[in-house]
Design a protein that fits this description.
By secondary structure, this protein is an all-alpha fold. The protein has two domains: 42 residues; 259 residues, MetI-like (MetI-like fold), CATH 1.10.3720.10. The protein has twelve helices and no strands. The longest helix is centred in the first third of the chain and has 36 residues.
Amino acid sequence: MSGSVLYDVPGPRAIIRNRIIGILTIVVVLGIVAFFVWRLFATGQFAASKWEAFSYTRIWEQIAIGLWNTVSAFALAAVGALAVGFVLAIGRLSDHAWVRWPVTAVVEFLRAVPVLVMMFLLYYGLPVIGIRMPSYWVVVIALVAYNGSVLAEVIRAGVEALPRGQREAGYAIGLRKSGVMRLILLPQAVRAMMPVILSQLVVTLKDTALGFIITYEELLFFAKRLGAAATLDSPIIQSTIVVGAIYIGLCLLLSGAARLVEKRMQKSPRVRAAQEAIAPRLHEGTDTEVIAAQELAHLDDVAKADGR
């Protein structure tokens, strides 16, 4: 083993082999893309007549309505999923079994049920017992339930992955569990899990498209309506391309916003203090609680100053 704990550093032959595999993969992917582009040209999908519908203002007004409905459902679902995720994660990390086990059951149940099944149950099942909800709230509630449970497991895994010494160090200076969680564990876990959290939020954004099945008028709903003509001249491919491009743009904006949040977290005094307060010196033979008290004294000062 050299240079890495997890795997051997590739040698010259392995490097050449990996490069060849990489080049072949790129060639295959480009070949598949070229084939589909060629078929689009061969079937006249890039003809001006196929894109004529997008020259009308009315069409773009409908797309704008669908975009607004998509963004509004995603925004509320994302905030709700994050809030539910934090609450469920804290419940999963509880020291009390009467809290931990019911929350665990709820999380596992919500993760196991597909989003579309939740939407069908809420939209078509609840009216049977006299409860009716607009399609907007059905989409939001289903997305919050599923993605909140997934984020709960992400946050829980991030907290449990942190060195146990940091938790013990917080207790050593007199912090309660809520303070240890709020000042030490959660800031580091959220920062470490930010790529996974972002990925799940992107999934949340894309899952809003499932709302068209229950007649929620989001982007895919209008794309399907526009290309619904059962003829060879139906612009279903063109409308799908336009909607797909809009979704890509939304995901890029979401990624940019997440990077800004991550940079702000890196500059936060709490996060820096929580990460720098405990040095990896517990193996030197000094008593753990003494080291913890010394290392986290600065963290306590920062937390008090920040509270003022």
